Q: What sequence folds into this?
């Protein structure tokens, strides 16, 4: 399947987004939604954002114990090993302390959308 540019008219101007820009935005979105929902510990919300929804309870326990929170998404790039995977470099805080070393996350395209792999 060939993908072209997605275009829309915005304020009278034609704006186009490349397929890569759309993929990168989707990866940023799933990472942001996951970390926004993480404090709730609600696997009904978090599970569908994961490649392995059944792992949610253990993951929530582990990440919650670390007090992990998202500070920023620094970069999104192609994984290179899989055309349906992106690597998301993030800055996180643990227990409120921002870590200098970025955390690298993998986001994969599945039939139901983009999902985060831990």
A:
């Amino acid at each position: 399947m060939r993908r072209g540019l997605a275009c829309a008219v915005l304020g009278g101007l034609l704006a186009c987004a490349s397929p890569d820009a759309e993929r990168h935005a989707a990866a940023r979105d799933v990472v942001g939604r996951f970390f926004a929902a993480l404090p709730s510990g609600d696997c009904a919300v978090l599970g569908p954002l994961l490649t392995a929804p059944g792992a949610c309870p253990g993951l929530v326990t582990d990440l919650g114990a670390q007090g992990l929170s998202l500070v920023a998404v620094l970069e999104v790039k192609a994984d290179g090993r899989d055309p349906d995977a992106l690597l998301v470099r993030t800055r996180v805080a643990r227990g409120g302390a921002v870590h200098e070393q970025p955390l690298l996350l993998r986001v994969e395209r599945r039939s139901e959308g983009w999902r985060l792999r831990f």
Summary: The longest helix spans residues 19-37.
